[in-house]
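cron nightly-structures :: item 1 of 1
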Amino acid sequence: MHRQLLSHLAHRDHPIAAPITAAALERLLRRARLPADARVLDLGCGEAEWIIRALELHPKATVDGVDVSEAALAAAAEHAAARGVSDRLRLHHTTAADFTGPEPYDLVLCVGATHAFGGLTGSLQAMRRHLRPAGRALVGEGFWETTPSPETLALLDAGLDEYADLAGTVERAEHAGYATVHAHTSTRAEWDEYEWSWTGSLTDWALDHPGSDGDAALAAARDHRATWLRGYRDVLGFVTFLLRPV
């Protein structure tokens, strides 16, 4: 199965697509203190839960969502229609790096999608190109809660420099030319809810679809669960920064 379809199926019961609760997501959006007629951009929007909630909080705002997954964008359009915000949402099927907007934005998001720009620093550099001078960036990134073992790094197919610790991650953001005005550090409970949902949703779908696709989905769910439980649980953290360019 294509990786994008696997991700879409795994997130069907957790459209936030990050180890964050709906309440924490809303607090971050409110702390952005957007103007009434805000323009918002999400680079790697998935099913667009973040920007749909932004539209609900700001009835005069308009948003652009960018993603490479057709399945996720189709789901985003359905969610937006069901919640009555379709007229203020524009969805773009393209890579985050290739997107260009006609005007700068008050808020630019990239949560759990920094790989699209080669990591946190590259993402923040790209986000700045879309921001108004007084705009905000909302970016979600992993960090090392504890130093990973060689076995964990092998499971993640990652190097030690893939992430920093939390203090180092703050430094990376600020070295990219931003000031941290707020942040949410995901809890273990948020991580567990996200991972059980990811693996469980994919397993549930696989059992309902016997055959080659079901077998592939079930294998992916089991591999992911093993990597989490035997590898990065309590090792890899997740932080979502609210930043201002300086």
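cron nightly-structures :: done
The beta strands are 39-43, 62-67, 89-93, 105-111, 131-144, 178-185, 236-245.
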